[in-house]
Amino acid sequence: MRRAAVLTDFGDSDMFAISDLPMPRLRHSDEVLVRVAATSVNPIEWKIRQGLGLPKWLWRRLIGSPMILGQDFAGVVLEAGPEAAGFKAGDAVMGVQPIAGSYTTHLTARTRGRRAAITHTPAGVSSGDAAVVPFAGLVAYAGLVVHGALREGNSRVLVVGASGGVGHLAVQIAANGLGAEVIGVSSSRNEAFVTGLGARTVAPYDRIAKSEYPQHFPGWEHSFDLILDCVGDDSYYTESAPWLLKDSGRYVTIALPSFQPGRPGEDVGPRDGAVLVAQLARRYATKRYRLVPGLVGLPAREGLPKLARWLAEGKVVPRVASMYRLDEIAAAHRESEAGRTVGKIAVHMPDSP
């Protein structure tokens, strides 16, 4: 038997039930069975728990039954299929589940093809550190490299939300992995943390308003190659990007813009959805705006090995802000929902190896 945090229905964090379930079996020749040591909580997961973003019936179909949320995992391979090339029993691994499924002690993962999202955990990296990197790290990598077109070399990047789960990894990937000059936007209380990650300087949003950037930072005018918005503050696109970005610069966000009518999910009908699509299409037509998809299309095959290498080299060091047990998953969700986490939230499994 395996143990899992099962979502019994959409709603508050008390909708989780810790349940014993049958062990998963390998269904494909390239799969591995993983004994999970740790997972993490990403904001997308409590949004799914609330039934936001898509109709609830569609979430149920995508997640399957029983409903087990969670993207990230780190653990040890217990069994490898005959075509799981490069993986064997005993290997320490880290990865991302498609859509959901990692709030459990055991899971299966594909190792080949477009659904492959697993790599070896570098020696010396703890399961807690490994578990908080894959999903947020891939979102950051996609925003910087795939959609932001950032390459190694002399570039200037503004990371909005630089102390959060995606943001603190994005700062390190850009500065330490790709050699860019990074400016972070965070609260003043997190300024030292963000500069310690590799940011050249920090614009504290609680002390300097965006409208005051020309006064305080006159050298920033038309000097940025990329703005990566990790919080979904659309005003950075509408108000700041025209002054900050070079003519060839890009604005990339990991969240839908705040001009979306109504609330996300079932409260947004076909008409509002059509308006949103039209507005996004107009922005994409400028070739300066990009949106990172949260659950599909992440560059796992390209990005995960690079994230693992940067972990091994010490260029990316995740900040684990809090650590919970699986039976404390509701409390972990409540902390994430509060929106004050500096770094990531890890969840350890019972009897973790």
TrEMBL record:
SMART domains from the xrefs?
Answer: PKS_ER
The family database entries (InterPro entries) matched by this protein are listed as: ADH-like_N, ER, GroES-like_sf, NAD(P)-bd_dom_sf, YIM1/Zinc_Alcohol_DH_Fams
MF (Gene Ontology): oxidoreductase activity
Domain Enoyl reductase (ER): from-to ranges: 11-347
Q: Record's CDD domains?
A: MDR_like_2
This protein's name:
NADPH:quinone reductase
Species, as recorded: Mycolicibacterium rutilum
